[in-house]
Amino acid sequence: MDKKNMSTLSCKLCLHGPTICNGCKGIYCEEHYIEHRQNLGTKLERIISDHDILLDRLTTHANDNDRHRIYNDIDEWKQNNIFNKTHEKLKHTTNDIREKKTTKTYLEQDLEQWSNQIQKLKDSIELLTIKSNDD
Ligand SMILES: [Zn+2]
Ligand SMILES: [Zn+2]
C-alpha cells in the first residue's frame, strides 16, 4: 500500500489507526474510537432520560384517569386510545434501546431513530394536552 492510501485509512485526529465506525463510517485509531463510542454513549444517556420523562407522563396519565371525568365518553375514549397507542409504541422503543445498550450494538442511526421516535410521541402527547386544556 502506498503512502497516500495509508493516510486515507488513518484516524483523522492522530493519523494512527485504522478502526472504522460502522455507524458514521468515520476512521479512528483504537484510542479515538473508544472516545467516539463514549460520545455516542453520552448521547444515548440523554435519549434515555427523554424517554423516561415521556414514560413517566404516560404512566401518570394512566393512574390519573379520574381527573378526566369532565370529558364526555367519546373524548375520553379517544384520549385514552391515543395514550395507549403512544405507550405501546414507546414500549417497542424501550426494548430496542435496552437490548442495544446491553450489547453495545447501537450506532448513530439508532440514536437518530430513537430520538425522532421519542420526539414524535412527545409531540402527539403535547397536542393532546393542549387540546384538553382548551376544552
Ligand atoms: Zn461513528
Ligand atoms: Zn486517533
Automatic annotation (TrEMBL):
<feature type="coiled-coil region">
    <location>
        <begin position="104"/>
        <end position="131"/>
    </location>
</feature>
<keyword id="KW-0175">Coiled coil</keyword>
<protein>
    <recommendedName>
        <fullName>B box-type domain-containing protein</fullName>
    </recommendedName>
</protein>
